[in-house]
Amino acid sequence: MTFPLRPITDEELPQLFHALQDPFGFHSDGDDVEDFRLTTELDRTLAAFDDEEMVGTAGAYSFELTVPGNLLVDAAGITIVTVSATHRRRGILRSMMERQLDDVAERGETIAILTASEASIYGRFGYGLASQSSSWTLETDRATLARPSTATGRLRLVDADRFLEAGPQVYDRRRREIPGAVNRVQAWWDVWQKDRPHTRGGQSARWYVLHEDDAGEVDGMLAYRRNRDAEHGLSRNVLTVDQLYGADDEVEAALWSFLLDHDLIHSVAAHGRPVDEPLRWRLADPRRLVTTDVVDDLWLRLVDVCGALSARRYGTTDRLVVEVADPFRPHTAGRYLLDGGPDGAACTRTDADPDLTMDVADLGALYLGGVTATALHRAGRIEEPTPGAVRRADVFFASSPPPWMTTGF
């Protein structure tokens, strides 16, 4: 039995949103549907139908992805992928993934990215684990900074309107320096600023802070929530970071200091932060920053291998022949000569003997520098026909800073 696939119409958007609720485990209302309408690219949606019933969904956002070298690449941000529980194991997911990647290729996008609700789903479609994120807590009464911020200027508590006049510009400048980050369109901010009560996780509405430099220009942004709790008359209140970005590390350190210096606050919590959070290294006692979770974050698939490999910069000048297997899209498989360095890169197909062999998913994992070739080689995911090629690839694909997916989608 086949299930027709096609983009949805505007009139069908409430039906699509309803189809998401059981797979993702939520109930919704009319406000959520309208928020969803603001950010959905209808021509990038895909739905599978059983008669009139919508039994599979998928979509994509048109993103700019920052890649090593602070360069921007057009990428498809895959989203809202579901199959109804009544129609599992009938080939719907596979057919949607095939159709979607064909569309990505036709649009000239070299990369597809996603965040996965389950980490076991997307490897078979060529997506590799390209970045991770961490969550942590820090008790404020033990959070002495051995290296305080040197940023000058001032901090200002502001309302949401003032924050949204300047905050998006701070984010946009910062995301261009972080491999794995994507742009946020105005519709994203329009939905975010509504701060719907059911999106707060039981915490307060947001507070907003801007940092201004000596000239009065905004160069840092912070949004946070708090809960209220006490034990034996002692505060157990928690501040939870929602957004924190600065023009540089010193501005970000000033924003962290603001949070840690609060009265009546037991701890600061942060979720979805970079794995190399510099705050730990500013603390007099780095053990006090307790990592509570490290999880996979961004998954990446190369759709046009040469287009993607030539779009980033590399840690050292080298030439590597990479043999790529791609069972899901066999025409992508082959041998590629990558000649690159800090100033540019070129990629062509070749018949030369390979230095490295790997699945396209593992090339996706390497692409942003979030894992070393050595780690993948030790895990049995990369082979090394040319002795020493794995160590060369470690330096070649390295990224500083490591990739960080700064925003969910």
UniProtKB/TrEMBL annotation:
Quaternary structure and interacting proteins, as annotated: Homohexamer; trimer of dimers.
PROSITE patterns registered for this protein in UniProt: GNAT
Gene3D superfamilies: 3.40.630.30, SCP2 sterol-binding domain
PANTHER family: N-ACETYLTRANSFERASE EIS
Family: Belongs to the acetyltransferase Eis family.
Name of the protein in its database record: GNAT family N-acetyltransferase
GO molecular function: aminoglycoside N-acetyltransferase activity
Domain of life: Bacteria
